[in-house]
Amino acid sequence: MVNVMEAPEGVTAQEHGAARIVVDEPRCIGAGQCVMVAPDLFDQRDEDGIAVVLRDEPRSDELPAAREAAALCPAAAIRLVRGSGA
Questions:
Q1: pLDDT in tens, 9-37
Q2: Helix (H, G, I), strand (E, B) or coil at 20
Q3: pLDDT per residue over 44-55, tens digit each?
Q4: Which of 25, 22, 24 lies closest to 47 in space, CA to CA?
Q5: What is the dihedral of CA 57, 62, 63, 64, to 10 degrees?
Q6: Who contacts 1 (Cβ-Cβ below 8 Å, separation ≥6)?
Q7: Is 6 a domain residue?
Q8: Cβ count within 10 A of residue 77
Q9: What highest taxon heads this organism's lineage (predicted)?
Q10: CATH number of the domain residue 66 falls in
Q11: For 82, phi and psi rounded to 5 degrees?
Q12: Residue 54 is part of which domain span?
């Protein structure tokens, strides 16, 4: 997990250049921890439970939940990456 900088309130992390959420779908096991801690950022596909990113550019107030989702993922399938690169 990447330690990202805080963006000003109401500014997306992407606009601030801080972070973008990336899910490694083949690695995801569908445990759903991400959805439980960050339901505004993640959902799961109905057919197989694989995590889906709802908004890959979290607002500054959503960064703690995005970090927690990455930390709790049992398959380590969620990453926060700096800027616009993957």
A1: 554 444 455 799 999 999 999 999 999 99
A2: strand
A3: 999 999 999 999
A4: 25
A5: -160
A6: 67, 70, 71, 79, 80
A7: no
A8: 20
A9: Bacteria
A10: 3.30.70.20
A11: -70, 145
A12: 13-81
